[in-house]
Amino acid sequence: MAKENIRERTTEEIAAFLTAHGEKAFRAKQIGQWIWQRGAESFEEMTNLPKATREMLAEAFRFDRLTAERTQAASDGTTKTAWRTEDGEVVESVLIPGKGRHTVCVSSQAGCKLGCKFCATGASGFRRDLTAGEIFSQVAAAKREAESRGSSLSNIVFMGMGEPLLNYGNVMRAIGRLTAEDGMGMSPYRITISTAGIPQGIRRLADEGTRCNLAVSLHAAKDTVRTSLMPVNQAYPLREVAESLKYFVEKTGTRPTFEYLLLRGINDSVEDAKALAAYCRQFPIKINVIEYNETGDGAFRRSTERSRDEFIRYLEGCHIVVNLRHSKGQDIDAACGQLAGKI
Ligand code: SAH
Ligand code: SF4
User: Fold this and answer.
1) What is the best residue among 163, 168, 217 to mutate for testing ligand 1's pocket, by most ligand atoms within 8 Å of CB?
2) In terms of Cα–Cα distance, which of 289, 288, 157 is closest to 212?
3) What is the pLDDT confidence band of residue 8, given thresholds at 50, 70 and 90?
4) Which residue's alpha carbon is at the smallest distance from atom 5 of ligand 1?
């Protein structure tokens, strides 16, 4: 019989399993602590359990363990790790140092279905959803690494490979364990879910009263331009994304962020900034303007500094909050959109 993934089980379910096998139910809490607080990835590590109990558990359950296949360090201190899943997929996470803290960028899927034209993950196709345990593991490893550097892990962003709102259940289960008191105890305010704009996912987040931050990868405020960059815009055009965002803002009272990647001659004119400013009038929003990272096929180019500055100045003139995001880790292809699982 195929073993079950222990990290898919709740503490109550583990307790029920233990009692059914003549073990003490309180051990479920110990097991939970090992898995979710100490990041254990095997039963052998759980040294406060009797050996026989550990062996019995190992007979019934497996861990959806990730194995570090390769770690690369960029000149700015950013590190990218390629993880091998138990079934041989490769996914990547990126640890980004800041002032006295670290941010981890995690993957939610192996590959992505949405095929955005500027994104290396999109070009690599879709393989499968990651499990909640695999998502959790990326964060647990990043936390260990940040702490070993004498720092701490303060922020989590779902901006690695994949579309988190198309793997909703596993992403939310992972966030549940990351934020729970008896889990990793991270604040949801320090977690950002980035989406290409899946309206039903955005509504569901609102309905479930998420306290995580929401980022929407907009990249264009004209449907023709957006569809040419992001095929998903055909299924969910700008108007539908806007409706779901109005709903989100109303329900959660929080202000989402737009990610806007500047591509030379494609979405970076003052005309484009005007369309973006008009779109932004529908709800409270902040904008992160992102500089494009080359992905190798050379289809797009980064905007000139001049058009970038004009673009930003126009938006600021409309009293919109704009941040320019400088990329990190470009020399190791660890920047946004450069994760393709190249091994
Ligand atoms: N699928 C989600 C999350 C992963 S992508 C989403 O699309 O939001 C994370 C961010 O990286 C998105 O804003 C995406 O648009 C951006 N990105 C993709 N390719 C990029 C590139 N080549 N340079 C810079 N950012 C890129
Ligand atoms: Fe998928 Fe996001 Fe890349 Fe688009 S940008 S292909 S949604 S990972």
Assistant:
1) 217
2) 157
3) confident
4) 159
